[in-house]
Write a structure and sequence with these properties.
The protein is globular. The protein folds into two domains: about 240 residues, D-Maltodextrin-Binding Protein, domain 2; about 190 residues, D-Maltodextrin-Binding Protein, domain 2, CATH 3.40.190.10. The protein is an alpha+beta fold and about 450 residues long.
Length: about 450
């Protein structure tokens, strides 16, 4: 893959709720744009918050954990709203290792986070390690911002294995590139179907089987689409972003591009079928509403305006904030196959780190059970199997929540090439054209494929 300048960076936003070290849950801000992507361990401010501060705040640094002889700088997404909890958890790392941690909070969305980090480094500042979501993996590695941690692993094999030995091999492969390990994964997310169980009960329906078909999905949509007191209740709300849409595509046997990110396949017959069904659910069947900007579709499920939606575990933040527990999850309908999607997040060690060994030790600690059990409650799926099997059921909902961690064995990554920002923006336009403007699906996807191919040319050797 050819090297590219960091002119355009990541556009996705995601987050999940964080727990204080005592284990209490923190209901994080949850604007709808956060549902479009896959990973993201750091809670962050909403777009409204970013606009309110006028973009003036470049970063907020927490106090360094006390007692360290060596100090590493950790980049963390957000404006410091989780500072107290994170500092308390990192202090335990310092107490154990003698390595202090200075957390550099970088506010905004993922695009702003990476742009500001790049500006800091270009200006002579440094970061030892950084939280990175799947959308940034290819960019960090392709541009040389991140360094492999193979040498640290070789020198700390027992410490490393004590962490990653509890990770499903399929998840661990997501942070390996060209035979090198680049990160310690911490969490991940998938996309499943969420049901308002009150509406299921009213319609006389139970949770479908995990391999439910397209025909069964349409039957559920029909029975769940009703009018109450002159207000229409819709059977489902459609996937609304790059990550969730590709989750649908995977279950049709389709994808945005080929496996080596050199050619678009967004106009394949299978992809056309997927997008056509989305359009038909609105205009032919009347089972789904036309997407509206700034409408919180997770809140629509909570309020009973829609019966089904397609997200990962991140809506548990919204459910917490609303005291909403009448929810169940099941796999996306097996339109042609049952293929879960995933997006992993974890700690990368930076190439220009002043303390790479200490940074790798911190990355390993943040991926450990000790850290995750104290810091993570809702929002994402712990990548450690035993921790996921403990924390996910402990929340108590959604019903059938075992599919979050059970799908780790078979989930495949969302496609996130170095050109992810351009591809993400393109998918957003395609969704709007097809679902809002009712554009012809085949011709729209043919044009999109040609445009995506132009972005992916840089990936051809």
């Amino acid at each position: 893959m050819k090297k590219r300048a960091l002119a355009i960076l990541l556009a996705g936003v995601m987050m999940f709720g964080l727990a204080a070290c005592g284990g209490s849950q923190n209901a994080a801000d949850t604007n709808e744009s956060t549902g479009n992507d896959a990973g993201g361990a750091a809670a962050q401010e909403t777009e409204a918050d970013t606009e309110a501060d006028g973009g003036q705040e470049e970063m907020t640094e927490s106090g360094t954990t006390g007692g360290g002889d060596t100090t590493v700088r950790l980049a963390w997404l957000g404006s410091g709203q989780d500072k107290e909890a994170l500092d308390a958890c990192l202090q335990k790392f310092t107490d154990k290792t003698g390595i202090g941690v200075e957390t550099v909070y970088i506010p905004g969305n993922w695009s702003e986070y990476f742009t500001k980090m790049q500006t800091m480094i270009a200006g002579g500042d440094y970061i030892d390690c950084a939280y990175v979501a799947v959308e940034g993996f290819e960019m960090f590695i392709d541009t040389g911002m991140a360094a492999p941690i193979d040498d640290w692993i070789a020198a700390h094999q027992e410490e490393y294995e004590s962490t990653v030995g509890d990770i499903d091999p399929n998840m661990l492969e997501k942070v390996k590139f060209d035979g090198h390990v680049y990160a310690i994964p911490e969490e991940w997310n998938n996309v499943v179907t969420h049901f308002n169980t009150n509406l299921l009960e009213e319609a006389g329906l139970s949770l479908p089987d995990e391999n439910w078909t397209k025909e069964e999905f349409l039957e559920y949509c029909e029975k769940l689409t009703v009018e109450k007191d002159g207000v229409k209740q819709y059977g489902c709300v459609l996937p609304d972003g790059y990550f969730a849409v590709e989750a649908w595509l995977y279950n049709f046997g389709a994808a945005y591009m080929n496996d080596d990110f050199t050619r678009s396949t967004i106009n394949s017959p299978e992809a056309v079928e997927a997008f056509q069904l989305m359009q038909d659910l609105i205009y032919e069947y009347g089972y789904a509403p036309i997407p509206e900007k700034n409408v919180d579709i997770i809140q629509q499920l909570i309020d009973g305006n829609v019966a089904m939606g397609f997200w990962g575990r991140w809506p548990t933040n919204n459910y917490n904030a609303n005291g909403f527990t009448d929810v169940a999850v099941q796999y996306i309908p097996s339109f042609h196959q049952n293929q879960p999607i995933c997006g992993v997040g974890g700690i990368f060690v930076m190439k220009d780190s002043q303390n790479p060994d200490a940074a790798a030790s911190l990355a390993n600690y943040i991926g450990s059970a000790e850290f995750i059990e104290k810091f993570m409650a809702a929002g994402a799926i712990p990548v450690l199997d035993s921790v996921a099997q403990k924390l996910v059921p402990e929340l108590g909902y959604p019903e059938n929540n075992k599919i979050y961690y059970e799908s780790a064995k078979t989930a495949i990554s969302v496609q996130a090439p170095v050109q992810y920002p351009e591809c993400d923006a393109l998918v957003t336009r395609v969704l709007s054209d097809i679902l809002v403007n009712k554009a012809d699906v085949q011709s729209t996807l043919d044009a999109a494929a040609a445009e995506m191919d132009s972005y992916l040319l840089d990936n051809i050797e």
